[in-house]
Design goal:
By secondary structure, this protein is mostly helical. The strands form three sheets. The chain has a two-stranded antiparallel ribbon. The protein has a two-stranded antiparallel sheet with strand order 2-3. Helix 1 packs across helix 2, helix 7 crosses helix 9 and helix 9 crosses helix 12. The chain is globular and about 45 Å long.
Length: 248
Amino acid sequence: MDAKRVETISARVDAAVSSPGYPQIVHKRGVRARLMRLFPCSTAKKSSSSNQNSVEDELELSAVRHRPEGLEQLEAQTRFSRKELQILYRGFKNECPSGVVNEETFKDIYAQFFPQGDASTYAHFLFNAFDTDHNGSVSFEDFVMGLSILLRGTIQEKLNWAFNLYDINKDGYITKEEMLDIMKAIYDMMGKCTYPVLREETPRQHVEVFFQKMDKNKDGVVTIDEFIDCCQNDENIMRSMHLFENVL
């Protein structure tokens, strides 16, 4: 994936982040910077010794403190090719030489993407969504399994992942308070760089609208079936589901 392709993809994504319910993000670095940070090797000059790089990747897999599963196994478990996994691994290794990332490191990395706001709370929720075995760390396997769903998963898989993010206490339901916590975290992360400028009550107002649409039986909680049904009938949400396809 060359720099021009990254720029094209990021332009599409940045143009589409202003869907209803979310303020428009106004920042110079945008998605392009995040992609370049995640895939630092994508702009490097291609070497004629690609086989040597492949061997080095395999050797480095065994050198880190946490040894990830073999690339072949991850290729079978995800929708990434071997070459894509190598690109992802180099980016992950660059940020996390030990082979795992804890929550504080994850927050530090994520904060660099949103210097105008406070991304710590949203990064906490996002970290818990990636940390599927809840052991307090995200391994390369955790990372690529989640990324595979977000980038290449089916609509059902992506919506299941999103539901898990909003279901903060993992009890199988989304409450209005949980939705509000996530929404507040998003607005805190965006900080003052939003247009139009947000009022303090805006997150709660948006949650009221969303929750009324999703909680169809009015029992005070949103089930995964209600969540998926509502999302599948929302054009803006469905359009956003396709934004990151073929990012690599």
